Amino acid sequence: MIRSMLLDGYNDESTIVSKNTLRPSQGRYDQDDSLYNDRDLDLAVIGFPKTGTTTLMKSVLGQHEEINMMPYEYCDINTANGGEKLLEFLKDKPLDEKGRKYGIKCPTIVRRPNAIDTLSKISRSYTRLIIGVRHPVLWFQSFYNYRVAEVYRKKEDLSTIPDPNKILSKNIQWKEVSLSYARFDMFLKQLAKVPLDDNELKEMVLSDKLWPKRISPNNFKIFLYTTEQLLGDGSNSTRQFRFQEDLQHFLRLESPFPDIRGVHRSNENNATHPEYMDICSEKFDRLRRVLLRQGRISSRWILKKFIKSDDVVVSDVDHFRELLKTWGTDPCQKHKVE
User: Fold this and answer.
1) Pick from 166, 195, 218, 248: CA 20 to 30 A from residue 24's CA?
2) What pTM was estimated for this model as a whole?
C-alpha cells in the first residue's frame, strides 16, 4: 500500500517519483518544454516565513546596487498559471539600464512543489534560491504572534484567534501556523537535492495532511542560512562579513554587500497584544517538547544529508552546524524568549 502511495502519489495533487532511491535531477525540462525567456529571474527568496525573509528582501538584497529586487512579496507563482504570470511580470519590467539582477521573494514557495516546477520551466537552472531556517521553538512563537498582530491590523474577529495549545497537532493549522510547518526538513526533501530512500519518502508523504508533498526535481543552487547568521547581534564582525561575502559570491555579484549589521528588521512585533504567546510559559511546556523533538529530527537530517549536496551552499559550515544542533535544546532554559 505504501509502495503504491509512493509511486502513485498521496492524492491527486501529490505525485511521488520513486525507485529504491531518488537521485537529484539532471534536468527535467528540455528547451521545447521550457517557458524560458530572455529576461531571467536571477534570484528568489523562497522560505521559510519568519526567518528574516522580509528583512533580506528590503534591507539587504533590495539595497545592493546590482540587484533589482521586487519590494513586496510576489507569490503569484504559486497559482495554477503562475508561470504565465511570472513571464508577464518579467516581460513588463523595463530593461534595467544598470544591468541589475531581478529578484523576488515569496516565503511559501519552498512549501509548494508546483512553484518550483514553474521556476524550472522558466529559468531552468539559472535562478539562485535562498532559504532561511530558524530554531523551531522561536519560529513558532514568532509566526503565531505575527498572525495575531495581523488579525488586529486587518480588524478581523479577535475570537478567531486560537489558544496555541489548540493547534497542538500536525494536521491542524491557523493561518499556516502549525507544528507541521516547523518540520523544515519535510519541505526541503521535496527539492530533491539528496538521495531519498523509500522510508524517507514515506515519512515525507505521511508527515501531515495540510500540505500535500511530492518530489520536484530541479537544477537550482540553494543558499541555506539561519536567522542568527542573517540577523546576528554584531558581536562577531568576521563571521558576519564572511556571511555577506558568501552570499555575494553565491548570487554572482561583483560588489560586496554594505555592512548588514544593524539593518532595519522588518515585520518585528513591536506592539503587544493580550493574545501574544510567551512560549516559555509553563502552559506551553508540552508544545515546546514537541517542537524540540521535531527540531532534533529536522536538524539531524539537514546536517547529515541536505547540506552535503553539491547544490546546497551554507556560510561557515561549522557555525551553521553549531546553530542547528541547538534545535533540540530548549531556549527557555537559557533566557527569556524575546
Assistant:
1) 248
2) 0.87
